[in-house]
Amino acid sequence: MQLAVFVIASAMMLVGAVGVIIRRNPVHAALSLVLTLFGVAVHFVALEAYFLAAVQIIVYAGAIVVLFLFVIMLLGVDKAEDLKTEPLVAQRWLAGVAALGLLGLLVVAVARGADILATRSEGLDTAAQNAGGDANIQQLARSVFGDYVVAFELTSVLLVVAVVGTVMLTRKRAAGEA
Amino acid sequence: MPEPTTLSYLVVAALLFVVGAFGVMVRRNPLVMFMCIELMLNAVNLSFVALAGELTDIDGQSLVFFVLVVAAAEVVVGLGLIVAIMRNRSSLTADDLAELKG
Question: Does residue A159 lie in a domain region?
Answer without folding.
Answer: yes
